[in-house]
Give the backbone structure.
Amino acid sequence: MEILSIINPKGGAGKTVTGINIAYALKNKGKKVLLIDTDPRGAIASYLDIRNDNTIFEALKECYDNLGIVNKEKYINEKNGVDVIISNIYFNQVDEFFKKVGDIDEKEQLNIFKDFLENFWEYDFIVIDTEGTVNNTVRGILIATDYVFAPSKVSFIDTNGLRDLLEMMEITKIDNPKIKLYKIFFVQVKENTKVFKKVHMEMKEILKEIYSDIYVREDANILNSMEKHKDIFSFKKSSNAAIDYKNLVNEFLNNEM
Protein backbone atom coordinates (compact mmCIF):
# COMPACT_ATOMS: atom_id res chain seq x y z
CA MET A 1 0.00 0.00 0.00
CA GLU A 2 1.37 3.39 -1.06
CA ILE A 3 -0.14 6.69 0.06
CA LEU A 4 -0.17 9.48 -2.54
CA SER A 5 -1.30 12.89 -1.28
CA ILE A 6 -2.25 15.81 -3.50
CA ILE A 7 -1.06 18.88 -1.62
CA ASN A 8 -0.63 22.59 -2.24
CA PRO A 9 -1.48 25.01 0.60
CA LYS A 10 -2.76 27.47 -2.02
CA GLY A 11 -6.48 27.06 -2.67
CA GLY A 12 -7.67 26.61 -6.25
CA ALA A 13 -4.46 24.92 -7.38
CA GLY A 14 -6.19 22.06 -9.19
CA LYS A 15 -5.84 19.47 -6.43
CA THR A 16 -9.27 17.84 -6.73
CA VAL A 17 -9.17 17.39 -10.50
CA THR A 18 -5.63 16.06 -10.15
CA GLY A 19 -6.49 13.67 -7.32
CA ILE A 20 -9.44 12.20 -9.18
CA ASN A 21 -7.60 11.73 -12.45
CA ILE A 22 -4.44 10.34 -10.86
CA ALA A 23 -6.65 7.79 -9.07
CA TYR A 24 -8.30 6.75 -12.33
CA ALA A 25 -5.00 6.70 -14.22
CA LEU A 26 -3.71 4.24 -11.61
CA LYS A 27 -6.90 2.18 -11.91
CA ASN A 28 -6.40 2.03 -15.66
CA LYS A 29 -2.97 0.49 -15.00
CA GLY A 30 -4.67 -2.35 -13.14
CA LYS A 31 -4.12 -0.99 -9.63
CA LYS A 32 -6.62 -1.28 -6.76
CA VAL A 33 -7.21 2.34 -5.71
CA LEU A 34 -8.95 4.14 -2.85
CA LEU A 35 -9.60 7.87 -3.31
CA ILE A 36 -10.19 9.91 -0.14
CA ASP A 37 -11.47 13.49 0.07
CA THR A 38 -10.38 15.53 3.11
CA ASP A 39 -11.61 18.91 1.86
CA PRO A 40 -14.73 20.27 3.65
CA ARG A 41 -16.01 21.56 0.33
CA GLY A 42 -16.77 17.96 -0.62
CA ALA A 43 -15.77 18.56 -4.22
CA ILE A 44 -15.13 14.91 -5.04
CA ALA A 45 -18.69 13.96 -4.04
CA SER A 46 -20.02 16.65 -6.39
CA TYR A 47 -17.59 15.83 -9.17
CA LEU A 48 -18.38 12.09 -9.15
CA ASP A 49 -22.03 12.44 -8.03
CA ILE A 50 -21.68 10.38 -4.85
CA ARG A 51 -24.06 10.60 -1.90
CA ASN A 52 -23.35 9.00 1.46
CA ASP A 53 -23.96 10.24 5.01
CA ASN A 54 -20.91 8.26 6.12
CA THR A 55 -17.97 10.55 5.35
CA ILE A 56 -14.32 10.85 6.27
CA PHE A 57 -15.30 12.88 9.36
CA GLU A 58 -17.41 10.04 10.79
CA ALA A 59 -14.73 7.53 9.79
CA LEU A 60 -11.98 9.34 11.72
CA LYS A 61 -14.21 9.66 14.79
CA GLU A 62 -14.96 5.93 14.62
CA CYS A 63 -11.25 5.22 14.25
CA TYR A 64 -10.51 7.14 17.44
CA ASP A 65 -13.43 5.70 19.41
CA ASN A 66 -12.63 2.10 18.37
CA LEU A 67 -8.88 2.30 18.98
CA GLY A 68 -7.94 2.32 15.30
CA ILE A 69 -10.54 -0.11 13.94
CA VAL A 70 -13.10 1.06 11.37
CA ASN A 71 -16.14 -0.63 9.83
CA LYS A 72 -14.86 0.53 6.47
CA GLU A 73 -17.51 -0.90 4.15
CA LYS A 74 -20.10 1.76 5.03
CA TYR A 75 -17.73 4.56 4.03
CA ILE A 76 -16.65 3.16 0.67
CA ASN A 77 -18.44 4.17 -2.51
CA GLU A 78 -17.46 2.36 -5.72
CA LYS A 79 -17.40 4.60 -8.78
CA ASN A 80 -16.26 3.26 -12.17
CA GLY A 81 -13.67 0.94 -10.66
CA VAL A 82 -12.28 3.23 -7.97
CA ASP A 83 -13.38 3.15 -4.32
CA VAL A 84 -14.09 6.58 -2.85
CA ILE A 85 -14.54 8.04 0.64
CA ILE A 86 -16.17 11.45 0.45
CA SER A 87 -16.10 14.55 2.62
CA ASN A 88 -18.55 17.35 3.36
CA ILE A 89 -18.83 20.64 5.25
CA TYR A 90 -18.85 18.89 8.63
CA PHE A 91 -15.20 18.00 8.16
CA ASN A 92 -14.53 21.59 9.26
CA GLN A 93 -15.31 20.32 12.78
CA VAL A 94 -12.59 17.66 12.91
CA ASP A 95 -10.04 19.78 14.78
CA GLU A 96 -12.71 20.95 17.21
CA PHE A 97 -13.75 17.34 17.81
CA PHE A 98 -10.25 16.34 18.88
CA LYS A 99 -9.84 19.47 21.01
CA LYS A 100 -12.85 18.36 23.03
CA VAL A 101 -11.31 14.94 23.66
CA GLY A 102 -9.55 15.44 26.94
CA ASP A 103 -7.08 12.56 26.85
CA ILE A 104 -5.50 13.15 23.43
CA ASP A 105 -2.49 15.35 22.77
CA GLU A 106 -1.52 16.97 19.46
CA LYS A 107 0.91 14.20 18.48
CA GLU A 108 -1.77 11.55 18.97
CA GLN A 109 -4.19 13.61 16.88
CA LEU A 110 -1.67 13.90 14.06
CA ASN A 111 -1.29 10.11 14.04
CA ILE A 112 -5.04 9.42 13.81
CA PHE A 113 -4.94 9.55 10.03
CA LYS A 114 -2.05 7.09 9.90
CA ASP A 115 -3.99 4.68 12.17
CA PHE A 116 -7.08 5.10 10.00
CA LEU A 117 -5.28 4.28 6.75
CA GLU A 118 -3.93 1.03 8.16
CA ASN A 119 -7.47 -0.34 7.82
CA PHE A 120 -7.07 -0.24 4.03
CA TRP A 121 -3.98 -2.41 3.60
CA GLU A 122 -5.52 -4.31 0.66
CA TYR A 123 -5.24 -1.35 -1.73
CA ASP A 124 -2.26 -0.81 -4.01
CA PHE A 125 -2.65 2.96 -3.77
CA ILE A 126 -4.56 5.41 -1.61
CA VAL A 127 -4.91 8.87 -3.19
CA ILE A 128 -5.78 11.70 -0.79
CA ASP A 129 -7.17 15.06 -1.90
CA THR A 130 -6.44 17.80 0.65
CA GLU A 131 -7.72 21.21 1.61
CA GLY A 132 -5.86 24.31 0.41
CA THR A 133 -4.55 25.35 3.80
CA VAL A 134 -2.10 24.41 6.55
CA ASN A 135 -3.80 22.72 9.52
CA ASN A 136 -3.51 19.64 11.72
CA THR A 137 -5.40 17.50 9.22
CA VAL A 138 -2.92 18.25 6.44
CA ARG A 139 -0.02 17.72 8.86
CA GLY A 140 -1.47 14.38 9.91
CA ILE A 141 -1.91 13.33 6.29
CA LEU A 142 1.72 14.20 5.57
CA ILE A 143 2.85 11.97 8.45
CA ALA A 144 1.07 9.04 6.77
CA THR A 145 2.13 9.89 3.19
CA ASP A 146 4.68 8.14 1.00
CA TYR A 147 4.61 10.47 -2.03
CA VAL A 148 3.38 14.05 -2.46
CA PHE A 149 2.09 15.33 -5.79
CA ALA A 150 1.91 19.13 -5.86
CA PRO A 151 -0.10 20.70 -8.69
CA SER A 152 0.01 24.44 -9.27
CA LYS A 153 -1.39 26.90 -11.74
CA VAL A 154 1.03 28.98 -13.78
CA SER A 155 1.35 32.24 -11.87
CA PHE A 156 3.72 33.64 -9.28
CA ILE A 157 0.80 34.02 -6.85
CA ASP A 158 -0.13 30.35 -7.18
CA THR A 159 3.45 29.14 -6.80
CA ASN A 160 3.75 30.97 -3.47
CA GLY A 161 1.90 28.08 -1.83
CA LEU A 162 4.73 25.77 -2.84
CA ARG A 163 7.10 27.56 -0.46
CA ASP A 164 4.79 26.64 2.43
CA LEU A 165 4.70 23.06 1.16
CA LEU A 166 8.50 22.79 1.09
CA GLU A 167 8.64 24.04 4.68
CA MET A 168 5.95 21.55 5.72
CA MET A 169 7.88 18.72 4.08
CA GLU A 170 11.03 19.47 6.06
CA ILE A 171 9.11 19.53 9.35
CA THR A 172 7.25 16.31 8.47
CA LYS A 173 10.48 14.41 7.80
CA ILE A 174 11.15 14.43 11.55
CA ASP A 175 8.15 12.11 12.07
CA ASN A 176 8.01 10.55 8.60
CA PRO A 177 11.50 10.26 7.12
CA LYS A 178 10.27 8.16 4.18
CA ILE A 179 8.04 10.90 2.74
CA LYS A 180 9.03 12.14 -0.69
CA LEU A 181 7.90 15.19 -2.63
CA TYR A 182 7.56 13.33 -5.91
CA LYS A 183 6.81 16.16 -8.30
CA ILE A 184 5.66 19.76 -8.52
CA PHE A 185 3.86 20.24 -11.82
CA PHE A 186 1.65 22.76 -13.58
CA VAL A 187 -2.00 22.29 -14.52
CA GLN A 188 -4.31 24.25 -16.84
CA VAL A 189 -1.26 25.18 -18.91
CA LYS A 190 -1.41 27.43 -21.96
CA GLU A 191 1.77 26.16 -23.57
CA ASN A 192 2.70 29.04 -25.86
CA THR A 193 2.30 31.94 -23.45
CA LYS A 194 5.26 34.01 -22.26
CA VAL A 195 4.20 33.56 -18.63
CA PHE A 196 4.32 29.77 -18.84
CA LYS A 197 7.65 29.68 -20.66
CA LYS A 198 9.23 32.04 -18.10
CA VAL A 199 7.89 30.28 -15.00
CA HIS A 200 8.60 26.85 -16.50
CA MET A 201 12.29 27.67 -17.02
CA GLU A 202 12.63 29.23 -13.58
CA MET A 203 11.05 26.21 -11.87
CA LYS A 204 13.36 23.82 -13.71
CA GLU A 205 16.35 25.81 -12.51
CA ILE A 206 15.23 26.27 -8.88
CA LEU A 207 13.49 22.96 -8.13
CA LYS A 208 15.47 20.65 -10.43
CA GLU A 209 14.55 16.97 -9.90
CA ILE A 210 11.33 17.66 -7.96
CA TYR A 211 9.90 19.70 -10.83
CA SER A 212 8.20 17.76 -13.61
CA ASP A 213 8.55 18.51 -17.31
CA ILE A 214 5.19 16.77 -17.63
CA TYR A 215 2.40 19.30 -17.23
CA VAL A 216 -1.36 19.17 -17.75
CA ARG A 217 -2.55 21.29 -20.63
CA GLU A 218 -5.62 23.50 -20.47
CA ASP A 219 -8.50 21.41 -21.75
CA ALA A 220 -12.22 22.15 -21.92
CA ASN A 221 -12.83 18.43 -21.59
CA ILE A 222 -12.03 18.70 -17.87
CA LEU A 223 -15.02 20.98 -17.25
CA ASN A 224 -17.18 18.88 -19.53
CA SER A 225 -16.20 15.69 -17.70
CA MET A 226 -17.10 17.33 -14.38
CA GLU A 227 -20.58 18.15 -15.70
CA LYS A 228 -21.02 14.48 -16.64
CA HIS A 229 -19.58 13.32 -13.26
CA LYS A 230 -16.83 11.35 -15.00
CA ASP A 231 -13.08 11.14 -14.77
CA ILE A 232 -11.29 12.46 -17.84
CA PHE A 233 -10.47 8.96 -19.14
CA SER A 234 -14.08 7.79 -19.05
CA PHE A 235 -15.18 11.03 -20.68
CA LYS A 236 -12.57 11.33 -23.44
CA LYS A 237 -9.42 9.24 -23.16
CA SER A 238 -7.90 10.89 -26.27
CA SER A 239 -8.08 14.40 -24.74
CA ASN A 240 -4.95 16.39 -23.91
CA ALA A 241 -5.69 16.27 -20.19
CA ALA A 242 -6.18 12.49 -20.25
CA ILE A 243 -2.90 12.02 -22.09
CA ASP A 244 -1.06 14.31 -19.66
CA TYR A 245 -2.40 12.67 -16.49
CA LYS A 246 -1.66 9.25 -17.97
CA ASN A 247 1.92 10.31 -18.72
CA LEU A 248 2.37 11.72 -15.21
CA VAL A 249 1.25 8.45 -13.62
CA ASN A 250 3.27 6.33 -16.04
CA GLU A 251 6.37 8.33 -15.17
CA PHE A 252 5.70 7.81 -11.48
CA LEU A 253 5.18 4.06 -11.82
CA ASN A 254 8.29 3.68 -13.97
CA ASN A 255 10.50 5.76 -11.66
CA GLU A 256 9.29 4.82 -8.19
CA MET A 257 7.68 1.38 -8.26
Q: What stands out?
A: The domain at 2-256 is CATH 3.40.50.300 (Rossmann fold). The first helix runs from residue 15 to 28.
